Structures are given as C-alpha cells and as structure tokens.
Amino acid sequence: MWIVVAVLALILGYVWARLVRAPRWPRRATWIATLAYLVFVAASLGALSFGDEGPATEPGPIRLVGLMGAGVLFYALVYFLAAGLTLRLSRLARRWRARRDPRPALPTPPPTSSGAIDRRTFVARVTAAGVSVAATTTAAVGFRNAWDLDLPEVVVSLPKLPRALDGFRIVQMSDVHVGRVLTDLFLDHVVEQTLRLRPDAVVITGDLIEGRAARLAPELAPLGRLAERCGVYYVTGNHEYYAGDAVDWVERLRALGVRVLVNERAALGDRDPRGAQFDLAGIPDQDAARFVASHAPDLGQALAGRDAERALVVLAHRPAQIEQATRHHADLQISGHTHGGQAFPFSLLVHLAEPYVAGLHRHGDETQIYVSRGTGFFGPPLRVLAPAELTSIMLTS
Length: 397
What we know:
Helix 5 links the parallel strand 3 and strand 4. The chain folds into two domains: about 1-145, no CATH class; about 150-395, Metallo-dependent phosphatases (Purple Acid Phosphatase, chain A, domain 2, 4-Layer Sandwich), CATH 3.60.21.10. It has helices spanning about 1-20, 25-50, 60-100, 120-145, 185-195, 215, 220-230, 240, 245-255, 300-305, 320-325, 345-355; strands at about 150, 155, 170-175, 200-205, 230-235, 260, 265-270, 275-280, 310-315, 330-335, 360-365, 365-370, 390, 390-395. It contains twelve helices and 14 strands. The strands form three sheets. It has a six-stranded mixed sheet, with helices on one face. It has a six-stranded mixed sheet with strand order 7-8-9-10-12-11. By secondary structure, it is of the alpha/beta class. Helix 5 runs parallel beside helix 7 (about 220-230).
C-alpha cells in the first residue's frame, strides 16, 4: 500500500513540477496554480476512491468531472514524459552535431528588456500550456468514446461444427463493471442492443459488476429480460471475487435465469440431444481459488465424459487461460479482461500481462481465441484507441 502511495505521490509531484515549477511563473500565479492543482487532484482521487456501499445511483456531474480529471492527469503525465524525451533527444542531437562541426556557436544576444525570459523558461511555459490543452482534449474525447458501443461481427470457422449450425450467432458481453459509474440504465441499453443482434446465445465473460451483491443486485434486472429471450451463459471475472461475495453473485444471477458455468459445460444447438450440437464450457477466473476454494478453474472437470468429436467453445475471463483450453483441444476460447487496454498507451503495458489484448487470434494448431475490448469500463470513464464493444461471433463450419 505504501509503495502505491509513494509512486502516486511521485507521479503527481512530477506533473506539478512540469506544470508549475519548471515554467517559473510569477509568484502569485505559482501559488494560484498550485492551489488549483491540489484541488483538482483531490477531486480526481476522491471520485476514483468513491465507496461502493451507498445506494446505486447515476453519478452526479461533480463526480463525473472528477473522474474525467483523473484522465486529464494520466494524459498530462504521458505528454510530459513524451515532451521530456523529445527535448532530451533534441539536446543529444545538437551535441552530436556540435562534435561533428566544431565551429564556435554564435553568442546568445542579451535580453532586450528586464521582463524577458530565457529560452528554457519559454520552452517550459509553452510545453506546460500545450500539454494542458492536449491532455484535456484527449480526456474529453476519451470520455465521449467511453459511452459508445461498437458492434463488430467476427466470423469464426470451427471444423467440427455441424453444418446444421452454420451461422450460429453468439453475442459476447464482457467487463461491463456495473456499479461505481455504470448502472441499470447502461445495462438496459446493452440488453436492447443485444436483442437487436438476434443472438442464438449470449455469453458474459466476467467482470459484470463492481461492488457487493446486496447493493447492486437490483441493477442487473435487465439480464432477466434477456434470459427470457435466449440462453445467457456466464463465467466469473476477477472483480466478482474482489467484491467479496462471488458465491452470492452466482446464486443471484442464476435466479435471473442466467446459466453460470463454474467448471461446467452446456450443449448448444438443437434441444434434441440427438440433433446438431456443440459444447460450451466455462471456468472461473484464474485467481478465483484465492477467494473461493471450490471455484478453482478446472477445465478437465467441465469436460469430463464429453464426446471429443464435438466442437468445443470455452468461456474464460482472462486470455492467459488459453493454455488450459489448448491442452484440452478447444476449438475457440472467448475472453475479456483486458478492455483492449482501454486508454492508449496503457494498452502497451497490458501486452506484458496477457498474451492477447483484443481481437481474434490463433493459438497453436487447433485453438483460436477471441478477446473482447469490453462493453463497459473500469476507473475513469475513458477510452482512447480502444472502443467498447458488444460482439457478434458467428460460427461457421
């Protein structure tokens, strides 16, 4: 905990230094800017750490501004680091040119007035102003993007799929994070969009909620309407366990008509067992056993006794769980967790933690994996170069 606080303090101190100290603003402007910065930081951190024990309501405009402020701070850090790297490279290039051309540099002319500023201060002020505008603009665009849904259609060929099921449509919802910011109004919109896609089945690949069941259960009511129209299948993500009551969440979702797959499988396709079918198996998040021992992911348990000649689709929250799916010769794994990085360049770090961040990939000779960029968002309502999605996965033979 103290390490996190120390790192956060260093980051915030660095941004303040580049915004306020380096430009050497006049004394009064420095004090005003510092005070404004502290208020801005307090509002942003307060919005991010807002507890989830109160009533579930739409966040007010003050909290939304605070959340957007966290995005502004993030991009201020990114742009200041980029500007600092650019200036450093520029200085190195000048030194390199000076060594190749040792002619003496022209003398710097003296200031023309007592109010003139040196070149370094001028560059620092221009950089501070430019970064402020760029960070605010990026955060505003990302805020607008966070509420829009892409509706991509992905065609996946499964050689074992019966021809009678050619064109079977699975709609994937993932990482909605209902709770701190997103409520039943957003989920109702997602359900409406899902029904318009006319799915044969709906899968939810974890991180559906962001809080405890006692508070948020009413927010998931729209899922009951979805379950009445088509089969809805769900696997847990890491945030269901962080909430502290994953078992309660499982039971409440089952009460809504959602089929929760905890190391289980279901047959999709014809209702007649003798008809055309394929297997859909689901396993909990890879860290589930740390919170609920009985939820340790075990794909072997889910597949016990199945016909290996049938096509197999696996639901697993994290792309890293692809190794289990590959060992059991799955045809396709459907995952989420990454949010597609949510806000570039944070996505570059996500690549270090997960083998796949977004889209359709082949893993080995037999298994494919599709990773959703997520339907909602976590933390600041911000999406930059990683749009939210509600995905149609069309299976073909």
